[in-house]
Write a structure and sequence with these properties.
Elements: H1 2-8, E1 16-17, E2 23-24, H2 27-41, H3 46-53, H4 60-90, H5 102-115, H6 118-128, H7 131-142, H8 145-158, H9 161-169, H10 177-193, H11 202-219, H12 225-237, H13 239-249, H14 253-278
Antiparallel strand pairs: 1-2
Helix pairs in contact: 2-3, 4-14, 5-7, 8-9, 10-11, 11-14, 12-13, 12-14
Length: about 280
């Protein structure tokens, strides 16, 4: 029985036991049980739930506020998914929104060109005939509805359109990209060797932690949680995405990698919620 297991691991002790040995719980214990079940809905490990509930700095209202924030985030995501489904059901093909204007896209294209290395420019000239042809192709593709919807997701990752545009203007030293790619490749190879391990094991979490650090550096983002959770969903739910990963790293790797990302960032979200409620200005 689930409640009995919670008692065994010290997560939810009964208020008392009857003469017949049955566990008895008062209203306060039942409220704690409700909190546990809520966190379990978000796939948060019991060990982490126990740490939150037993934290002396978190009272009942702190935990409720934490849970409310988590629900709000889930609600907003569900609303976005419902809106997307409604648009598909309506058969809407017409662009009914614009994330980046034509002027902003033109500025983005110019910034990208100014940040390209000579080798990159030569490669694009070889493919498109000239940089002006590449620019025209970029603007056409970036103006499409699919691209604008992708931009909407990216803006969400950065937190605002201004921050996303700023990152496109200053993408960092392009000479570092090969080094980043090399380190990402090394991490992935190490994860391949750990694919039989539990995704919550120290070894796997340490590798995903390094992946998190590199991602923040490469994409110039303070927090890549939403981006990585979206990536995790792709690994677990999109056949073409799974195939791409499995073709490179072996059958079944995509699912393992997706679960490892989900476990790491779900836990990270829970810890962030806890920190924000204890220290409002704390950052992970």
């Amino acid at each position: 029985m689930q409640v009995a297991h919670y008692d065994e691991i010290g997560l939810l002790a009964p208020t008392e036991k009857s003469d017949a040995g049955y566990r008895l719980y008062d209203d306060k214990a039942l409220e704690t049980l409700q909190q546990i079940l809520f966190f379990r809905e978000f796939d948060i490990p019991l060990k982490e739930i126990k740490a939150v509930i037993e934290n002396p700095a978190l009272d009942r209202n702190h935990i409720l506020l934490m849970q409310r924030k988590m629900l709000t985030m889930k609600k907003e995501r569900m609303e976005r998914l419902i809106a997307s489904i409604d648009n598909i059901l309506k058969g809407e093909q017409k662009m009914d929104f614009e994330v980046f204007s034509k002027t902003e896209l033109e500025g983005m294209a110019d910034d990208m060109i100014s940040n390209m290395s000579e080798e990159q420019k030569e490669a694009f000239i070889g493919k498109y005939g000239s940089m002006e042809a590449w620019r025209k192709n970029f603007l056409e593709n970036a103006s499409s509805e699919e691209a604008q919807r992708n931009f909407e997701i990216v803006v969400g990752w950065y937190g605002s359109k201004e921050k996303a545009l700023e990152a496109s203007r200053h993408p960092g030293n392009s000479e570092l990209f090969p080094a980043y790619q090399k380190r990402f490749g090394e991490i992935m190879e190490k994860l391949v060797a750990k694919r039989e391990c539990d995704v919550n094991s120290f070894e796997v979490k340490a590798l995903i932690g390094e992946y998190d650090f590199l991602s923040k550096q490469m994409y110039q983002m303070e927090d890549v949680t939403e981006m990585m959770l979206e990536y995790a969903r792709g690994c677990r739910e999109k056949p073409e995405f799974r195939k791409m990963q499995d073709d490179v790293y072996g059958e079944g790797f995509a699912e393992f990698f997706g679960e490892a990302l989900k476990a790491f960032y779900t836990r990270k979200q829970a810890l962030n919620f806890s920190l924000e409620n204890i220290y409002p200005h704390a950052k992970s």
